[in-house]
Amino acid sequence: MNLANYNSQELRELRKEIDRELKKRRKQEVKEAQKELKHVAERYGFSLNELLSASPGVKPGAIKGAVRYRHPEDADKTWSGRGRKPSWVKEWEASGRSLEDLRVD
């Protein structure tokens, strides 16, 4: 696939499609992993909840939030929408552009 043949709008749409597909696949992979973990736990006589609640080092709320905003020209710049706004988001808004333009869906 030669991305040089696409204009900027087409590339942004392609990125959205890729993000949606990746999200869909991740959900499926999580379901498969949970099913596999459940079978392993049952093989040892435990429920999955028993094993997960006994896990040391994982604190509630320690999981990073999902990406809700992404810079259109630099995909490495993301923000979950939680906490302080990163400088690139502040600059985006200061230039008169809307935060909704950055939303990932």
From TrEMBL:
InterPro entries for this protein: H-NS_C_dom, H-NS_C_dom_sf
Keywords: Coiled coil, Cytoplasm, DNA-binding
Major subcellular location class: cytoplasm
The DNA-binding protein H-NS-like C-terminal domain, residue ranges: 59-104
Subcellular location: Cytoplasm, Nucleoid
Keyword Endoplasmic reticulum recorded: no
Cellular component annotations (GO), alphabetically ordered: cytosol; nucleoid; protein-DNA complex
SUPFAM superfamilies for the chain: H-NS histone-like proteins
The keyword Cell membrane is annotated on this UniProt entry: no
GO molecular function: bent DNA binding; DNA-binding transcription repressor activity; minor groove of adenine-thymine-rich DNA binding; transcription cis-regulatory region binding
Highest rank taxon of the organism: Bacteria
Coiled coil: 8-43
Family: Belongs to the histone-like protein H-NS family.
Protein name according to UniProt: Trans-acting regulatory HvrA protein
Biological source species: Alkalilimnicola ehrlichii
